Amino acid sequence: MKKIKDFITFLFFLLFTLFGLWMTADAQTTYKQEGNTFSSVKTTKTVTPEKTDYLWKDFKGNVHPIYISQSGSCFIIKISSKTGKEYRQYLGPEMSEEICRKLGREYKVKTKTE
Q1: Burial class of residue 105, CB neighbours in 10 A (0-12, 13-18, 19+)
Q2: Confidence (pTM)
Q3: What is the phi-psi region of residue 24: left when phi exceeds 0, alpha when psi lies from -120 to 50, beta otherwise?
Q4: Which residue, among 71, 74, 67, has the nearest Cα to 51 in the 3D structure?
Q5: Burial group, residue 96, by CB count within 10 angstroms (0-12, 13-18, 19+)
Q6: What is the pLDDT of residues 25-49, one digit of tens each?
Q7: What is the CB neighbour count within 10 angstroms for residue 78?
Q8: By the 8 A CB rule, do 65 and 74 touch?
Q9: How far, in Å, CA of 113 to CA of 101, rounded?
Q10: Which residues fall within 8 angstroms of residue 93, CB to CB, at 6 or more apart?
């Protein structure tokens, strides 16, 4: 019974360790120094979207530049009236496919997994 309990404990430890490594696989850790104290800072790789030559006119008449992500999804950047923060408003797959076709890029269709 003791061996089974130790084996199960080892399996849980191994799974949690592998899960932790998997979760941090795309993040890089850098270090910063403040006086005599060092601390680790986790940074993630960010990809800046590409600004296209196309514009989007919303129902209020505001004109926004259209950006395209690495996967080919098109969006505009708007500012929230409540918080004042920027957010992305995606334009949908039909618009993204059309702009990708005009730019000669590949649109990666997202499929839902249930």
Answers
A1: middle
A2: 0.56
A3: alpha
A4: 67
A5: buried
A6: 445 667 777 888 888 777 666 678 8
A7: 15
A8: no
A9: 26
A10: 73, 107, 109, 110
